[in-house]
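Extended Data, panel c. Modelled sequence:
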Amino acid sequence: MVINIEIHPTATTRHQCSLVHLKCAGIVHSLDVDFDSFLKCILRPDPIALDLLFIASCAYGVDKAVSRDLFSEDKWTRHLDVTIPVAEPDIWGTVSDDMADCLGFLTGDRWSFQFAKSNRSLVQRRRFRRRRLRRYAPLDGEAVSLFSGGLDSFIGAIDFLAENPQRKLALIGQYDGDIGGPGKDQDNLAIWLEEAYPSRFTRLKCRIGLSEKAEEHSYRSRSFLFLALGVAAARSLGDNVPVIIPENGPIALNPPLIPSRRGACSTRTTHPHFLLSVESILHHVGLQHKIGNPYRFATKGEMIKNCKNSELLLKSYAESRSCAKAGRKTFWKNKLARQCGLCIPCLFRRAALHTVGWDDEQFGNDLGDSAICLEDVEKSAFADVRALSAFLLRNDPADKIRRELLTNGPILAQDLSNYVLVVQRMRDEVRSWMASKSTALIQKGAGFQVTS
């Protein structure tokens, strides 16, 4: 599918961004980028970094606008030929193939990128100044950390601020109107951080998405957008400012729990190969920023146990949200819960909290609920539970785990053994929680001896 991105003059002085149209299969979609918030924190964005953010925003918009069911032969893999206007097309043309490979690994599609010279500025400053100007703190910090509203990113912020009492941190958040919760979650967690570490961090939070309802809801390209926003922020702070992505190792690797989840069927939003690919692209276009995940060899439970301010975490962890399906409440028994309790991130979260005795949250479906029956388990909402149970039942040896990890994506040889170990420790965490908290039906499916 050929997709053209067009920048049009802004239609209103309320926004500081030109109108952006994505032309896909004869349908025009509007891309909504909240440059108001961006420019209040970053007054003079670097042109190359701004190009990167725009490219990532367009890729995210295309990913949402093009339905996999309608525009792919196998109901998954789409062919996306995208032309994007940028300030420096010659520079981006040198990495167009690398960009296509990187996005292809991330989303499971076949991408092709062409870059044209933009005929107008993406950023459109307001013509008129309001009488009363609200003051916004400019972004400041010696490192940038992605701040999603999840438990891992919250622990990452706590650990940095606790371990570096003389350094400031820039927290970068992205949210989308189609995904309810993350924006508010980020605000709530920031309140706790400000109370514990006053004036130690600054924030940038941007809304980026389509103006209208999305056709596709796999959202696989969102991590590239989030990372690009972090890089743009880091560039504004200076050369070599690092970008931190706090994510536990098993979620970053997302090892295929069952054979049908191998390859493109497994999400790779923070996979080490993806992060290295992005860092390589940055290097080639002159953006010298290291991308690091300090928790790549840690389970979620280990992140919680080793948090540098456990008192703060205990008081505030419930304000975080790990759920991958928070907006899909069709099968939820408890509609007032914040998280489904059945997706892989929820299951890992519960197992991790169990390691420190904090597993007392309310979920849409609780695996400890005796009312769960076999018919419920067969529903699609329980697919992750069945896959995780099958993984526990197999109890794969280290060699099998190593092969499965390599099947799911390239991994540096020096890191492979540590990744195998973190998957094994994750398995122990989940097994311990399930043995203690889940119903007899789930335990039986996971290979436990269940007594009557």
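DSSP finds 17 helices and ten strands in the chain. This feature is highlighted in the accompanying rendering.
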